[in-house]
Specification:
Shape: globular
Number of helices: 3
Structural class: alpha+beta
Number of domains: 1
Largest sheet: 9 strands, antiparallel
Number of strands: 11
Low-confidence stretches: 17-21
Radius of gyration: 20 Å
Helix content: 10-25%
Order of helices and strands: HEEHEEEEEHEEEE
Length: about 160
């Protein structure tokens, strides 16, 4: 293969990759916080969090569980989550380490937020499991706390 043929083939490959990348829109907002999202199983959440922190919790009256974790080496210092009786995460809250606040725009597309102020951003995201709400709160467009909340009011199976 001569240099001209190789250059032409490479250009066509790059154009094809670019076209595929453009057809896959980015999500309107993050789906997980340090790998934990709505519908994550409690076993998967514990497995991921035990690699980056320590934690524990208690069973809830509705048959679910609440856990709180202290995290190391991530932007988040602490995280809490609740599961339903099926063992699936229904909410997550995470507190950002001071000085490592996260820009709202890194969490979601500002144009797709249902609410966007200097102190709060909210996205409502549809998903096959019923959807979720991402809430970011902080100052000057930077999150110091982030919440994921299930919008699937019947329990996630």
């Amino acid at each position: 293969m001569n240099a001209k043929t190789f250059a032409t083939a490479l250009l066509m490959l790059l154009l094809a990759v670019s076209a595929v990348a453009q057809k896959t829109p980015p999500p309107a907002a993050v789906e997980t916080i340090d790998g934990i999202g709505i519908g994550t199983s409690i076993d998967e959440a514990r497995s991921k969090l035990s690699q980056i922190g320590t934690g524990g919790g208690r069973d809830t009256r509705d048959g679910g569980r609440k856990e709180a974790w202290t995290l190391k080496e991530t932007d988040f210092g602490t995280m809490a989550f609740k599961t339903n009786k099926a063992g699936k995460v229904v909410w997550v809250s995470a507190f950002v380490r001071p000085g490592r606040e996260v820009l709202f725009a890194k969490l979601g597309d500002p144009a797709k937020a249902t609410t966007l102020t200097k102190s709060q951003a909210i996205w409502n995201i549809s998903s096959p499991s019923g959807g979720y709400r991402l809430v970011a709160k902080g100052a000057e467009g930077k999150a110091s706390v982030v919440y994921l909340l299930s919008l699937d009011f019947p329990e996630i199976q």
